[in-house]
Specification:
Layout (H helix, E strand, L loop, with lengths): L5 E6 L6 H10 L5 E7 L10 H13 L3 H4 L2 E6 L3 H8 L3 E6 L2 H17 L4 E6 L9 H9 L10 H12 L3
Parallel strand pairs: 1-2, 1-4, 2-3, 4-5
Length: 169
């Protein structure tokens, strides 16, 4: 019997969207164990600090059926992705693609990662049709301008966004 295949789905998840959750759920059919790897990305000026983003993802995973959520773990990282992947013994990086415009950047990143560690494969999952145009950046912008984000994030995440904005964030 072969070893369980571990995949890493990296991102900032600021905040986690329904599109991210779609990729997480679908990635569990590709790997036996999935690590949602939350990047520390302070340079991007996130709305939520790292611990808050990890907490939101854990809340979202808790709402998944046990057969799916039980195979997913959240970890944060602040190092080179390929170093983190190697430390975990992972063999797959999962990346979501929303549109053709994502592909060029992701293709370049996959090429660089393959040069750093040719034993790790990058698997691209296309966003489901209903999630193709969701991005954390748009969710934050819509929320800041008083728009309804309920079709882009769960009610749990929307509550976190609303609370942050009410606090002046």
């Amino acid at each position: 019997m072969s070893e369980p295949r571990t995949g890493v789905y990296p991102g900032t998840f600021d905040p986690i969207t329904n599109g991210h959750m779609d990729i997480i759920t679908r990635a569990t059919s590709v790997v036996d164990r999935l690590i949602v790897a939350v990047a520390d990305s302070d340079g991007k000026g996130p709305m939520f600090v790292l611990d808050e983003r990890v907490q939101m993802i854990e809340e979202e995973l808790a709402a998944l059926p046990p057969e799916t959520g039980g195979r997913v773990q959240v970890l944060s990282f602040d190092t080179l992705l390929m170093r983190f992947v190697a430390e975990l013994g992972a063999s797959v990086i999962i990346r979501g693609l929303r549109a053709v415009s994502d592909f060029e950047y992701e293709f370049q990143m996959a090429g660089m990662n393959a040069r750093l560690n040719p034993d790790v494969e990058t698997v691209f999952l296309m966003a489901s049709e209903r999630h193709q145009f969701i991005s954390s950046r748009f969710v934050k912008e819509i929320a800041r301008l008083g728009g309804d984000i309920s079709s882009f994030v769960s009610s749990r995440v929307a509550a976190h966004v609303d609370a942050r904005l009410a606090a002046g964030g």
